[in-house]
Amino acid sequence: MTAEGRPGEAPDAAPFEYGADGPRVIVTGVDGSDTSLRAAAYAGGLARRGGARLILVHATPIAALSMLTPGGAAVMQEAAEEIVGELEQEIGRAYAQAPVDYEIVTAQGDPYTVLARVADRSRADAVVVGASTQAGHRLVGSVAVRLVRAGRWPVTVVP
């Protein structure tokens, strides 16, 4: 290595710095499934090691049939709130031991659409999601596949 930097670098290029090149904002989807919890753990580790902000997103799909039955929407909302409450407790416990700057965002809608909107608005540098375990997603496409196809952020899919 010469005084100008690494071989092949322009002489005026800034020197490489450890820990300065990772993502600053990481978005991850959580729905309570094992793969989404693994994705949140992975994203949390990335955020902790790199000093990044972590945004955990829980999207509650709007089920058309629940809107047709009396009280169906209220039952769906109550179930979603219970899931989010449990996630908040679990995430709070996990990140109390290893501090991470995080926030939890909840919204109703298609998980892909909600994650994409949050990633765009927060100017995410990375998106981390769990792999789908549903067989039908091989034909239609999972949230992870749709995020990768969008091509707007680096996407990590955690098994």
| Sheet with the most strands, sense and barrel status | 5 strands, parallel
Radius of gyration: 19 Å
Give the overall average pLDDT.
79
What kind of assembly state do the chains in view correspond to? single chain
Order of helices and strands: EHEHHEHEHHE
What's the number of helices? 6
SSE inventory with pairings:
Layout: E1 25-29, H1 34-50, E2 53-60, H2 64-68, H3 72-97, E3 101-108, H4 111-121, E4 126-130, H5 137-140, H6 143-150, E5 155-158
Helix pairs in contact: 4-6
Please give a structural write-up.
The structure is a single chain. With 159 residues, the chain is α/β, with parallel strands linked by helices. The protein has helices at 34-50, 64-68, 72-97, 111-121, 137-140, 143-150; strands at 25-29, 53-60, 101-108, 126-130, 155-158. 45% of the residues lie in helices and 19% in strands. It has a five-stranded parallel beta sheet with strand order 3-2-1-4-5, sandwiched between helices. 26% of the residues are buried. Mean pLDDT is 79; it is low at 1-6 and 136-140.
